[in-house]
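Fold this sequence, please.
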Amino acid sequence: MTVLCLINLINYMDRFTVAGVLPEVEDYFGIGDSSSGLLQTVFISSYLVLAPLFGFLGDRHSRKRLLALGLGLWSGVTLATSFVPPQHFGALLAGRALVGVGEAAYSTLAPTLVADLYRGPARSRALGAFYLAVPLGSGLGYIAGSKVKDLAADWRWALRVTPVLGVAALLLLVAVVSDPPRGVLDGALVTPPATAPATDRSWGQDLRELSRNRTLVLSTLGFTAVAFVTGALALWAPAFLFRVRLARGEGPPCRGGRRCQGDQSLLFGALTCGSGVLGVGLGAELSRRLRPRHPRADPLLCAGGLLGGAPCLLLALLCAQPCPPAAYVFIFLGETLLSLNWAIVADILLYVVPPGRRSTAEALQIVASHLLGDAGSPYLVGLLSDALGGGAAAISFQRGAAALRRALLLLPFAAALGGAAFLAAGNALPRDRRRARRVARGLPPDGDSDDDSDGDVAPLLA
């Protein structure tokens, strides 16, 4: 479990190191906001395209081998992209796309390994620890990018940190991590592929069954809003804060190969780490305490996080130029509330989906949330900023900051829509949880027997 958490931490560090040095990347390649947004978009696009394949393979083959393949791929490609010359921005985009392929394997399969290692409240705590790596790794990515860039006087060295960590993690994965039988802790042993014949269940059957799971569909839509907001915020918040600093006349611009001066990435990384630790931990603990008394507590907690985070993000954008300290406070509050979702959404999926379909369900949730979420939101925000006169086309620092702020106003609106989806998921949850428990026991999904009345199968009910 410790190794899986460590790799997830490196996973998210790798994703957001580029965002921590984005002004330098724009200056090095001579690109505008829309092109910068493509860095995240191509990464997420390849990530979501390959996730269903890894989900299909993960339900039928060795998950450990697939994880090792993904980790080796993303570490090697990340290192290679640090040597791309300034006239070949397309090569950097291609490299980020290949990194997405490797990370798709890990993000799809690792949560199902965690589910097969723990049950009950222990599973909830394990998922909390696993998803703590999302904000913590993201924040460390900003910090590592910012500090390594300063120490080396070259932003490209920031991309050479996670590959070294990735190689060490790969060795630990091979030596320490096992691939437990699927579903044995849920009362239904799905035999491992090494000793069982290939399943005769088609992928189409899995898709049809999962599409009927309203809780899965609605919680995925809610999580899509989280991905939309965090994806755009992760890429553009440090750049926005840097432009606000320039608009206030507090520092020189990034021009002609000079290193950009400022601590926005470092501060934003620290805020992301702190808010993530608090939010993920608080979400997991509230879920553990409230769920036994309130069966619909999980989706309602997720809804509360999004509906509370929306006004905080709005206030952060409005306060950034007149009062930057207030903006940092509201960013911290907003990110804390958004972080409530990470472990809870994963737990919802695990107890409303039978063990034999969990990797596929994870993959579909990844595809949907990224396709409609952070695959497009960074590019969309950058495109809107350019259209409004920001980016390289800005005629003044004030106009550049104002254009990006107006583009980022999409995020509070998206958060509110996600909150509504989680509220709807709360209504469907009891039925879908009961159906998953029955299928795990080998019973028809719909029935009136009392065999599904206790909490031995579904996690976290007792």
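The chain is about 75% helix and 0% strand. The two ends are 23 Å apart (CA to CA).
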